[in-house]
Amino acid sequence: MAIGAEKIDRRSCILIKARSTTRSALMAVVLEALASNLSNVLAKMARKEVGVLLGISDKIDSLRVRLDGLKEFLADAERRRITDLHVQGWVKELKDAMYDATDILELCQLKAMDQDSRRSNNPSLLSLRNPLNAHHIGSRIMALNQRLDGIKQRAEQFSFIKLDRYGDCSRTAQGHGLRRTTPELDRSGVVGNKIEQDTRRLVELLTREEEEASAASISSNVRVVAIVGVGGIGKTTLAQNIFNHQDIKEKFDKIIWLSINQEFSDPELVRTAITGAGGEHSGHQELSLLQPILREAISGKKIFLVMDDMWSVHAWNNSLRIPLVNSAAQGSWVLITTRDERVAREMKAIQPYHRVDILSWQDAWLLLKKQVVSTLKDEYAIEKLKSTGFRILERCGGLPIAIKAIAGLLSHKEINEIEWGKVLRSPSWSVDGMPEEINHAIYLSYDDLAPHLKQCLLYCSLIPSYYKLKSHLIVEIWISEGFVNGKLNELEELGKEYFNELIIRNLIHEMPYSELGMHDVVRSFCQHLAKDEVLSSHMGQLRVSDLDSKRYRWLCIENELDWSALQEQNSVRTLFLYGRTEIKFKANDLCSKFSNLRVLSILYAQHGSFDSLCQLKNLRHLYFFRTDIRSLPDGIDKMKFLEFIGITRCEKIRQLPGSIIKLERLRCLNLMSSNIKSIPRGFGRLTSLRTLYSFPVQMGSSSSKDEWCSLEELGPLSQLRNLHIKGLENVSASSSAAKAMLGAKKHLAIWWLECTDRQRDDGFLKEEGIISIDEQRRIKEVFDELCPSYCLEQLYIRGYFGWQLPKWMTSKASVRLDRLTSLKLDGLPCCTKLPDGLCQLSCLKLLQIRRAPAIERIGHEFLQIQQHNGDCHPSRAAVAFPILETLEFTVVLELEEWVWEEHIQAMPLLHELTLDRCKLRQLPLGLASHARALSVLKLFMVHNLKSLQNLPSVVELHLYENPDMESIRGVPKLQVLSINYCPKLKLLEGIPALQKLYLLDFSMKTLPGYLQDVKPKICHCISMGASCSDWDKISHIQKISGYAGEMRIRRRWYVFYTREPFKLDTNIVCSSISRGIIDGLLKDKERRTKELRMVKLLCALLAVVSTNNSIDMINGSGDPTRESTASAAILL
């Protein structure tokens, strides 16, 4: 019997929405985390003697005493508020008081900074205080102290007990290793045979062509299949498994993944679909502009579209139905996952719907073990706990998301009966006040978090699933909200540890491009907890009454709105304005009422005036993305707490205000893809900067009278971790580069050096890109002085036009880059050879060299380690590139020779090698001898290469437009071979393990003879013409996928053929005669001779244009050379 089957069957398919009404509601604020933040603020104020400076130290001390007296009750109060409405009211009162305390203390700091600044400017005022400040703040603190006294007195009626459950907040787990869903599949969450069986069944349905669309289809060319089940049961995992199946990738021209859920945005969905189809949406916001682009991108193509986590048919009807139905080719499919059968019914999904069952006992136990076990010792220990483990799993109800959540908790416990017994007997399994549909395992995992991690997790649920927020931005916002407490120089690193711990606990995950992911069940749970303080509005759902009803702390809005409607929310600490938001300011609309705002993110907003931003005195994080902002306010220096500024892809802003150099707390300035050309002079005063992206270099020096700063102002910025410098061709003298003191920056880990690109994508110089000898010399001298420190981990150089790479990349460099893991060199138009120091980068894992057209030879210097007197690392010199995994040479147009002799040891861990657009005559001998881990080899347009041989470890080989390639020998482990446009290839020998062969050549008239010499299980072929005599070349192949078509639609016609057991599938309807033959074969599988005859006939179809011509071809009287409006076609 499956786990929890009886219980699951009684459940509704639809979760209660995030803002549902439940009387015993949980609140977003985590009291212990808020109290901890207050304690940190008080400690900082004490160190800076803020109270003394303002003359209110006694009142601040009394506030500290009262807060300390309440802290011991907080854990018990937070637990009991879930079921006790009276405790809930008490907690809300205390929470409001704590927020007010935070606001008052930050006001104290602001006043102290103002007073200290005036004293610095006028030392004669040293003994003077502002009595008005002291009286005003003192009165507010006294009133707050009275409130806290009353709150503590009322606590006595609840008889709270002291609970001390949490240790060091900075501790992170060392263990095993949101929701916008992603097509990427985490194999650790896939267990058992059931999901593989379901995958095979659905893939077979999706790749089977039927004569006519089902009666339940939404159109003749697009059909829908539905996966239905309760939240967290594994619908997305099954959809991911299908999406990544090789048969799906082979059958469809475009495969697209869309995550829908309750927070989707119509424009965002269509933009994502356009990107998935290979189109370019140019950032358009209007559906009327986006839908034609989507239609063009999918026109005539067979589409497989996954719409994951659908709650209604709105996304389909309003955004996607018309483009797909009108433009996609016949045989296109839409796969949806949903909790609600009504969605499947309204989309006319074929029946029966596929229902995902809960996990069996065996699969549930296997999933738990995969998430918890990390060593063989763990494997042995966990088997002894099988009885207790099964009882825990029974409470998870067979839901994969619940099992993974509880496994994340168990991974932080010792694997013994005592710890697992505590989890089994936890009272959190029976806590009241949560939606019935959310398994208590989610709450149990949440309850086990330290307070600071609870706050961080709840915050993640605020961010809409379609909002592509990267992990580093999440960490910055956590810091801005005060959730990350630690030493100032470690906050970003500590925040990343918080993020990683939530990943380990299976409560969030990191998607491609480092974006936040969160399962919709976890999101629903967190939104339920946070509903009294969070409002997330989208698609025009915001009403004025929504804003009037509560005091929200966090707002996320995608609406056209009047700024004045927001101003009543003066308790807001985070405000996201996203998507189609048009901020309508009136003459008297100010930001002053948002005095408590810490985080402001504005994305895609238009027609906004941001002049009053400087009134946001408490703001920490300011972020603009694709807005029409033209300038920051001149008074930005009044925002003294500001730590993070992001202005990315904002094309209308040209410069920063001069007062920005007074933001002494600024930790990050991100100007990526903006048009800011200069930075104000005096920028070197911002010594707290950790991250600086797109720093634009201007000509000049510190001695010039220009208003913008020069490169040398980077010198004092010793705390930099991430640095991107652009426009380095503007540096007039190497002395300016030397004064940047990059070698002294001991924390610098990620570094981009960029000159304005003078090359096209094909490697040739642009018309205006003439580079003189003097320019080459000067840029070489500048880069020589930009020597990094030993701590560098990632280096990216783009557009460098010196004739040699910098001297610090040679073997004689004074600094060894022993921590460098990634090196990317893109755009080296004048560089004639690679330096001899690259091979000594002992930690390098990735090396990319792109657009280096002047390099003709890779000589001994690339791999032969140079020994020098005084080398302090002789043991590391034995092997060149000892842990390199990926090597790529792209657009090295003149490269003819690569010297790597067999006695030179190098690259023992190389996994993937790419050679793209070069003249290499042969692969180096040492590659086969020493790169024994090489499994993927890609050769694109390697024009002089005639043969490949002796590649003992290669598993995948991809060849594209290699015109001189004649033979491939001795690749014993090769399983996947892709051959595109290699007309001279005649011999394939010594590839016994071949599983799949892909052959693409639209000029091919007959199938190549080498097909007779190989025995792949699958042959995938696209060509332009052949004859039925080719059948003997491929008759031994188990599975054949053949395509043909016009130049615009390359897979217009197809045939899928399987030899044993027989299966034939095609979309060709030549005539009633040929269709009758095909139907007869499909019905009578014993007529083997006629089966082969049918396939031969299909091979003879050279001009599928008209019925009459097709009949002629079948009868053998057609002219295969006859011109036609369609391209000649071969189907295997």
UniProtKB/TrEMBL annotation:
Pfam families: LRR_14, NB-ARC, Rx_N, WHD_DRP. Signal peptide: none annotated. GO terms for biological process: defense response to bacterium; innate immune response-activating signaling pathway; plant-type hypersensitive response. It comes from the Eukaryota. Residues 36-121 form the Disease resistance N-terminal domain. InterPro entries: Leu-rich_rpt_typical-subtyp, LRR_dom_sf, LRR_R13L4/SHOC2-like, NB-ARC, P-loop_NTPase, Rx_N, WH-like_DNA-bd_sf, WHD_DRP. One of its GO terms (molecular function) is ADP binding. Residues 219-374 form the NB-ARC domain. Residues 464-524 form the Disease resistance protein winged helix domain. Residues 589-951 form the Disease resistance R13L4/SHOC-2-like LRR domain. Keywords: ATP-binding, Coiled coil, Leucine-rich repeat, Nucleotide-binding, Plant defense, Repeat. Belongs to the disease resistance NB-LRR family. This is AAA+ ATPase domain-containing protein. It comes from Oryza glumipatula. The lineage of its organism: Eukaryota, Viridiplantae, Streptophyta, Embryophyta, Tracheophyta.
